[in-house]
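Predict the assembly for these four chains.
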Amino acid sequence: MKQGLLTDRQKEVLRYRKKGLTQQQIAEIIHTSKANVCTIEKAALENISRARETLEFLYTLDAVHLCTLQSGLDLLKAPELIYTEAEKKGLKVKYDTISLINRLRDANPERFRGRQVREDVEIYINKDGDLYFG
Amino acid sequence: MKQGLLTDRQKEVLRYRKKGLTQQQIAEIIHTSKANVCTIEKAALENISRARETLEFLYTLDAVHLCTLQSGLDLLKAPELIYTEAEKKGLKVKYDTISLINRLRDANPERFRGRQVREDVEIYINKDGDLYFG
DNA sequence: GGGAGGTTAAGGAAAAGTGTTTAAATTTAC
DNA sequence: GTAAATTTAAACACTTTTCCTTAACCTCCC
């Protein structure tokens, strides 16, 4: 029944923003505070991220669990771990060391701080050697 | 902060389903009733739909409102209306009559019954002549 | 008829999400 | 530096979602 993730309020703000209006201008139009417009816009963008992540997850359904990057691990040690585990399963990882690190960081920027893993990251791999994170 | 739309429970059920387990089998594994497994799976699929719809909406941001298909309209009369309105805006619709009808029905199956529009459908068009519905 | 797999409905408790305000802090632009 | 624009945090009322149980219903197949 329910439509997409975005509320009417959120869509409204995104449309005005697309037109180039400032948060202040929008606040006046929809009769609320600029802080509130900010909150609504932020929530909207978060919802869009969540929608993307949700569809990303579907790929992991075709994938199997490979290993866990534990909190505190040095990011530079992740590739070796991943390559080793993939080999055990007879799978070839699609990414070289550099691409792998970039993919890790790009996929979940908030899970890494500098070279360190901030919270456990589950690694999944499919037959094509593509990696997904959960 | 929050990850995707799916809860851990929902992901768990989807993974077991992917493996081919029945709802009853999953119910035993996760210690609940099969009715509950059904509910969780249904909620998961609904969330996936919502994620798709959310990203669809982003396209309408680049699009402008073209016209409204009003409740009760004959679906076969929609293409003419749409072509006429697009022409007024100097835009060329990307779809021929047949593809257009199919796209309309595929995009929102629940909004049509046979040849009839069940509830208002807003039509948006972008510069490429692509159509989106809201 | 009876079993297996799946769906639906009603109801409840806990958790999460939304819109809002107010106030403070940060970033960006001139 | 200052003013405008944006972001953040805390708190609140409110609504929705989630997971769960129980009990019933449907469909296919033997």
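The interface with chain B takes residues 2-6, 11, 14-15, 18, 46-48, 50-58, 61-62, 134 of chain A (CB under 8 Å). The two ends of chain A are 28 Å apart (CA to CA).
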